[in-house]
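Lab notebook, bench 4. Still working through the backlog of constructs that have no structural model yet. Next entry is a single chain of 569 residues. Request: give me the structure tokens for it.
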Amino acid sequence: MKNLINILFLAITAIGFSQNLHTDGQKIVNEKGENVLLKGIGLGGHMLQEGYMLKVPFSGQQYVFKQHIEALIGKEATAEFYNRWLANHTQKTDIDSLKSWGFNSVRLPMHYNLYTLPIEDEPVKGKQTWLEKGFQMTDSLLQWCKENKMYLILDMHATPGGQGHDLNISDRDPSKPSLWESKANQEKLVALWQKLAERYKDEAWIGAYDIINEPNWAFTGKHKNGIDEQENKPLKKLMVEITKAIRKVDKKHILIIEGNGWGNNYNGVLPPWDDNMVISFHKYWNYNTQAEIQGFLDFRKKYNTPIWLGETGENSNVWFTDAITLMQQNNIGWCWWPLKKLGFNNPLEVKVNPGYQKLLDYWADKADKPTQKEAYDALMQLAEDAKIENNIFHKDVVDAMMRLPLTNGTKSYKAVNIDEDTLIKAVNYDLGKLGIAYFDTDYGNYYVSTGKERTGWNNGRTYRNDGIDIYKDESGYYVGDTQRGEWLQYTFEASEEGDYEIAFTTKTTSECAVLIENKDGYSEVITIAKNLSWNTSEAKKITLNKGFNQLKITVLKGRPDLKEILIKK
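Model written out:
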């Protein structure tokens, strides 16, 4: 009996005691009344693939991608690919990792078609057929969140018919009635939310229901995505209907609302109509200043209702740190986008295998059509590479999100001890903020605020997500596109104090010069002769301390590509 009690106690402890979230004035709190600042990330690309996440060169809706796959490998093999993708993309290890990195919540972008049939496929018009696939996937994800004491936010990302003219977001087929053009689609969405609420009404680790992701539709305005709508009557009407349906079965959970125009146009939508509601906003490619969020801060105060940054990301580490710092200074929870994709500016990167690259080239009319087997093998490898153990982990992104909003401190990217090691890779400059760990003249995309073209940061788009431009050739990664005044800092250990020699592996189209400095007053200029292939510069004398050492490398002249810093006795 005693063993049974112990087992039950451990099980309860693992799951976590009931801590339903609810609103309390302008705050989100748990059942103890403690303020909860949600630090979350969205599982974009999991249930719903957007074309840019897969680097496709055609229209980015998931159904279009699926059609292209079916044309190469057939329907049966395509179904196998999707089953593998859904099983691999998000697993318990992903959620365990998020917890270990410091996140406390997860936003699940749901595709309605994993939970119910499209209206045109319903055997009986007006009836709802429920599919267990989506519910079972959600159950598993919720269990992993419970075990990590993390909140799961259910986000209706792809609604029946699709909620906007930005087609990729909701996998919308414009040849069929949208959510706003079909009463049957609206009824299906209301019924689906009630079904979800019935299933999860007693689940404490369900953080909230995010009713409709990024509506973007012209009801009476001129802009097709609804950014100039003044009333938004159909949007509010539908969200009120969904609220009533949820509240019939679930009085506990927070409801999250989003405005038109990708979530931010609340004209005619407010005030909130439920006493346990959160106002969400989305933030991309603008400045991280108080002025940029003041309108939502005003909503919070005026309506005495919490606000939440429900989706943001797709930028540089500098932008990430600044945005999260701004949110946390204002007690605004946040949720990043996405956890993983085929790209470098997120915590996890899904690799592009050679076979899949050939598919992309074929679809872009740059290569011959692959055989059915080649295409099948490439897609199955892509699904296999979606597993976290096969992803590329970008620790600099996680550091920018979780550590840097709290400190100006730097730390080494990779431990190096000058004794066992004789070189430092140039791309492994310190983790830290712009102007403290490194400096680069281009460091983020702010085109929404500037009104100008989109700007880049790491022009090589690989390895790290700072402004430093990193490239890869047959010999490995290197720092390129350097400019005068840009610099890098390196922290490392030395086994003993004494004199060493330092040199660089570089290539350059003209004579260059770099300045080496440390905090002990040492400085030395190294001249680098023109060399079009990788070459070792002239060595200079340097004195190292036993243990901790830190060097700053500044470009004084020219634009050298830098691969390695060589240090030896």
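Notes after review: The CA atoms of residues 357 and 378 lie 9 Å apart. The first helix runs from residue 2 to 15. Flag for follow-up if needed.
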